[in-house]
Amino acid sequence: DPAAIRRYAENHFKEVFRKRPTLPQAPWLPRPHPTVAVGLFERLTRDMLRTHIKRLPNNKAPGPDGITYETLKGLPPNGVEAMLLLLQLCAVVGVPEKWRGSDTAALYKKKGDPTQLGAYRPISLMPTIYKLYTGALTHVLTDIVEQSGSYSESQEGFRQGRRTQRQIQWLVSTLEDAHVSHQPVRACYIDFAAAY
Question: pTM of the entire structure?
Fold first, then answer.
């Protein structure tokens, strides 16, 4: 029965991901200064929020809050303003505990025997507002890191205006130079199976 298999897979992954590992407390680590939180607060702007809401994809399953992206896209101007105040507050005092929960569902990979657990992968459906907040926060933090010059010049992936093709060109150039100069080249390729 496909429905029973799906329920079994969902229950399996819910149990696996229900227990979150606890990280050891490290009281010796420095706590962020309050001005850092205020800086994040100030960088979460109305225009940024509107841009993030506009870019949200349609037809995606909501998390435990039941709020869809389409709902956020339909917010009136005063709703966007209230959302901005909420996200700015979260930047200062933290996110509600309920936002940290998720629903885990089993998604068929569209290959393999659907009666086998290995033919499914778990997906975590987070609360929609939390995803909006983390997306905006990622944007802010990325801007801070870029402006501070903290990235290595060799970091190409996940950076605006950068392309991993430059890394490939660098590798090809290195191989060509080694060939011409008769020097050995050692390369290590790592392919993380089912990394995502």
Answer: 0.66
pLDDT of residue 58: 94
Identity (one letter) of the amino acid at 174?
Answer: T
Angle at 86 between CA 82 and CA 89, to 5 degrees: 140
Distance of CA 129 to the CA centre of its chain: 14
Kindly tell me if the per-residue pLDDT of 45 is higher than 80. Answer: yes
Buried b (16+ CB within 10 A) or exposed e, 13-40: beeeeeeeeeeeeeeeeeeeeeeeeeeb
